[in-house]
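Morning - 2-aminohexanedioic acid inputs below, output right after.
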Amino acid sequence: LSSRASTILSSLDISTTDEVPGVYDGQWGGSGEVITSICPTTGEILARVKTASPHELSEVLGRTREAYTVFRDVPAPRRGEIIRQIREALAAKVRLHLGALVSLEMGKIKTEGVGEVQEFIDICDYAVGLSRMMNGRIVASERPGHSIFEVPNPLGVVGVISAFNFPVAVYGWNLALSMAAGNATVWKPSHTTPLCSIAVTNIVSRVLESNGIPGAVAGLVTGGRDAGSAIAESRDIELVSFTGSEHVGKIVGKTVMSRFGKTILELGGNNASIVMPDADLSLAVPSVFFGAVGTAGQRCTTTRRLYLHRDIAPEFLERLQTLYATVKPADPLADNTLLGPLHSHAGLKTYNDTIEHLRSIDAEILTGGDRYTEAPLDAGNFVQPTIAIPKSVDPTDHIWKKEAFAPILNVAIFDKLEQAIQWNNAVPQGLSSSLWTRNMQNLGKWIGPSGSDTGIVNVNVGTSGAEIGAAFGGNKSTGWGRESGGDAWKQYVRWSTCTINFSNNAPLAQGVNFPA
Ligand code: UN1
């Protein structure tokens, strides 16, 4: 193991010599298949991780269920105090160590790795407050001497199936709300980022145990498809929060629905930025640059489509290409790197296939279009951020309607805002979109009924980089899920509508007469 990798792993108490246990339910274990964690920058094997056997999977689910029956009776503000301690444990030095591990194992650059841990810290703060504010309502009853309460009770067990691109933050969003609501959580991370999940679970479990709370309140099962299926199929899991592809999301959604479980689905994004002629290009150009190139194009919220008004298109593209020319691919942990590698070989294949497709349809490739093959980049999955102008602007064409998880930005030119909005809305996905304008009428149209149909609708703000305070999620084939802020917490509770009679009579609703 390289000394750098071993320093990062040791700083988070992960063994650098043995196979690493990847299952936690109060105790660490793992007697199933062994998976490897591979550094996308160097190709080095970072660790071998012992995943859950089928028997262990069902044991973990059982323990998680038991842990829930303990945790649901802990008063919510007390649960909030435990979340506050998790927040403290994540802050300070750990924030940097864990951020570095995200960069090492996932491949995103240092500030984005740390930023991801910051999202976890922020949602903990939010959930601490929420733990004293998850209020129900009292509804006016039509019957005298009656009251109706809507009571948020804990839901049960929440299964979190997360993706490689946000190997820490997405779990954080779910864990914090789930714990505030009084649930136990079981986490199945991406099989290519097991170390991030082990490091996080180390931190969380210590806080739980030091508070006398069963560790299985935040269980972990690393593994592949079997572990994911076990969670989707288990009747002991009330809510499955899944982040990943539309293809797998469809299977998970159907499986959970077939047992009438609840889901939160965060699937593909295919996000557009629309630039009007009155836009401030000094804001729009760098924001589109970050949206398209940041995280090497591997955010659900990455800008994949750019619609430019004809009047500003040449200038915009020139300025954007100038920024693209400054990008130097490098080690994501080195200071000032803006472009790390793609996470995996699968990502490389997506990139190659998409570029090949662009060439086959005679798209103009303004910049990019290749891997970086010189040493030392050849050891990692480095690709050139690409800007392409497909000949066809038809949003139902493959190149426009399919999300390719790579730094490829497709551009089209429009004359009227209505046309750009129609293109924006014509794809199956509906996660994020942004309009660049200083005109109030454009803004009003964009955020209203005839405007953007995505879950996140921005103005003079790029498509990526949402804050945790607002609800995060998308519509249509993105899955309609909402996480983090807004009303997202309401999905993590079971609502009890309680009608209470404190009178001496028992009148029926709607004035029904039923004399006994
Ligand atoms: C994701 O890509 O799955 O808005 C989540 C953003 C981040 C979260 C992205 N806050 O880009």
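Note: The two ends are 80 Å apart (CA to CA).

O.
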